[in-house]
Amino acid sequence: MTINDNTANGTQVPYRDPRVYDEYQKKWTSIPEDEAGWLQRAQEVADILAADAEIRDKENKSPRAEVALLKHAGLLKVLGPKKFGGGGQPWSVGYKSIRKVAEADGSLGMLLGYHLLWSTTANVVGTAEQAERIQKQIIENNYFIGGAVNPRDNDLKITSEGDKIVFDGFKHFNTGGVVSDLTVLEGVYEGTEDHIFAFAPTTHQGIEFAHNWNNVGLRLTESGSVKINKVAVPWDDALGWDPAQKKPREDVLKIPFGSLLLPTIQLVFSNFYLGIALGALDYATKYTVKKTRAWPYGGDNKEHATDEFYILSTYGNFHAHLRAAVALANASGLEVNKIYETYSGDLATRAKLTARERGELAEWVASTKVVTTDTGLRVTAGVFEVTGASSTSLKVGLDRFFRDIRTHTLHDPVAYKNRELGRFQLLDEVPEPTWYT
């Protein structure tokens, strides 16, 4: 069933009725308790999404129903504190869950990944009180979080009006915002160079979506542009700021811990790239076994495509490189765990994280970004060589894996990650924190 959403500007936005997944809300009456349970739940979600992924990709409808499925499954809560009803899992489990969902549907893997990052924003750049309050709100309400934070655009302008701060501006990209419950806003406070993060209800009349996401890949991510028009939030919600002094707290924001969101989300990217590539290999494998015909003019003719030397060699090579990429991604996830487990907590504990430790984590993440980008692009394009000309038919749907990974691997040039790693290898330099490192 298709429903048209009448937005404030009169735009008609079709989406599938979220009730198509109501049965799973009744099926999943509790959240998993351990890593194995969470990965099984992610697999169940992936199996549901895989059944009609290519159809939904072509229809390009707003993913309200699919986000409802993520909510029913409890996957939005995997990292949340147990005392509020969350899963209490480390980032390594979150990353594997993202990867598993992306094997079936890259768009939903991406949405889950961005949500997990934005839902933990206050844990990194907020005070302990803010983190507690916001985590409670998100987990208890099972909220999905979007973010209007695109560093390539001009910063949102922030002014002060009494006990509130007011955001104004425009962002070309805003992943998941249209289907979110809360939106993370970020901008620069007037008269300073200091940035402020804050959460706002997505229903705020000043958050105006253009509904213009119609790209070649990741079509169900609602990553279009958004106008932020006089969106006011309380000064108390300015993450990591002293509302009385109207100044950033240096013990929260001006320490290496305060920049951990960047390597954390870069590893989110790598994991949904990896999931997409794994999904492509599995999809292509099934196609080759069932439908690909052996080449009859090679001089060493085989009866079945699965006996062809070049087909076996290609699949074997892809398998090996993806297995290595999985091992690297898992190792990097454990490095993220180690940093958060060691330094999360009170401000004195956060302050112990050194720039060197933060930088070495960034290089684990950069290494994973390079490998998953290179391998993902090679696999998702290369599977056509071993599935045959008929696999390019749109009804087959094999093309969506390449379109998805090609779209997001342009997010920030991987060449700069190679250069960064080169300086680490040759000069033992760790990178300065940036919006992309």
TrEMBL record:
GO molecular function: 3-methylbutanoyl-CoA dehydrogenase activity; flavin adenine dinucleotide binding
Domain Acyl-CoA dehydrogenase/oxidase N-terminal: residue ranges: 49-139
Gene Ontology terms: biological process: L-leucine catabolic process
Pfam families: Acyl-CoA_dh_2, Acyl-CoA_dh_N
Domain Acyl-CoA dehydrogenase C-terminal, chain residue ranges per copy: 267-411
Annotated keywords: Flavoprotein, Oxidoreductase
Protein name according to UniProt: Acyl-CoA dehydrogenase/oxidase
